[in-house]
């Protein structure tokens, strides 16, 4: 990857391997971002500074998505990113704003040399002195401390995450940081507002995809209404004794042996 990372066929072949470590998956994403950046700058489509910023954001997105699938291997991924110089404060803040507090804890554990369960315990009180000391030991910049405190509090209880920014969490952190005071807080707010724009764009894209799928879905089959049944009448009909039609021969025998009607008897005597 270090020697031939610009080769697209090589990257594609490596990504098909099931045993590819998570760190190397991120290295392939970095190589792809570098190749695309060089192509865009060479074509004159983007200035160098903007292209580099987009490439850096793409690398961070890839890292957070890979971390969401890492499970118990998040600590190894964090260590690989630190050794490669890519475990940046912006990446850690993105992970928190995506709801992945476990990866943030793994990264702090690796940066500060503290056991991960201890880090998770300190994260329960993000405004406490212990969490502030942990962030300082991990080397996180002081201007971003309000953003990290607010992000830890806002991401608490957010179970599901897929590596994409949560607009609700980002907006909550922006609101919290706007009430803070500090000399270098403007840089933190600028970064947070970029995250907010990205999260809003992603949410709009997901909503458009959902509406498109609903529009393309086949219509549901039309089911004719079943006849209305009077339940009370049905129960009464079941309880009534069955009506048996009389036998014609029985009727004839009864008529033959029956006594004459009173009117016929009176007429006979009068005659």
List the helices and strands and how they pair.
Elements: H1 8-15, H2 22-43, H3 48-68, H4 74-83, H5 89-97, H6 101-112, H7 116-122, H8 129-138, H9 145-155, H10 167-178, H11 185-216, H12 231-239, H13 248-257, H14 262-270
Strand content: under 5%
Number of helical runs?
Answer: 14
The H/E string reads HHHHHHHHHHHHHH
Mind summarizing the main beta sheet?
A: none
Helix content percent band: 55-70%
Strand pairing plus helix content: what structural class? mainly alpha
Number of strands: 0
Global morphology: globular
Low-confidence runs of at least 5 consecutive residues: 251-256, 258-264
Report the span from N to C terminus: 133 Å
Q: What is the typical, i.e. mean, pLDDT?
A: 81
- State Rg: 39 Å
In short:
This protein is mainly α. Helix content is 67%, strand content 0%.
Describe the protein.
By secondary structure, the protein is mostly helical. It is built from 14 helices and no strands. Helix 3 (about 50-70) packs across helix 5 (about 90-95) and helix 4 packs across helix 6.
Overview features:
globular; single chain
């Amino acid at each position: 990857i270090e020697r031939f990372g610009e080769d697209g066929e090589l990257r594609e072949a490596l990504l098909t391997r099931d045993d590819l470590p998570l760190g190397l998956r991120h290295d392939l994403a970095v190589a792809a971002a570098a190749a695309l950046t060089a192509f865009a700058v060479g074509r004159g489509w983007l200035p160098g500074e903007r292209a580099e910023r987009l490439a850096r954001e793409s690398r961070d997105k890839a890292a957070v998505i890979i971390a969401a699938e890492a499970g118990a291997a998040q600590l190894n991924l964090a260590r690989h990113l630190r050794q490669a110089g890519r475990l940046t404060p912006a990446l850690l803040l993105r992970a928190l704003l995506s709801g992945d507090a476990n990866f943030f804890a793994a990264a702090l554990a690796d940066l500060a040399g503290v056991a991960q369960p201890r880090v998770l315990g300190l994260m329960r009180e993000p405004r406490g002195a212990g969490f502030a000391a942990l962030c300082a030991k991990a080397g996180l910049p002081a201007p971003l401390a309000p953003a990290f405190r607010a992000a830890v509090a806002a991401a608490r209880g957010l179970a599901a995450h897929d590596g994409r920014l949560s607009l609700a969490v980002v907006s909550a952190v922006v609101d919290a940081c706007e009430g803070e005071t500090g000399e270098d807080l403007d840089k933190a707010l600028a970064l947070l507002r970029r995250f907010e724009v990205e999260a809003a764009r992603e949410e709009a894209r997901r909503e458009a995809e959902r509406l498109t799928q609903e529009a393309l879905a086949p219509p549901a089959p039309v089911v004719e209404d079943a006849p209305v049944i009077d339940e009370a009448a049905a129960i009464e009909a079941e309880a009534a004794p069955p009506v048996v039609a009389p036998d014609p021969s029985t009727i004839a025998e009864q008529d033959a042996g029956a006594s004459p009607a009173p009117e016929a008897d009176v007429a006979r005597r009068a005659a």
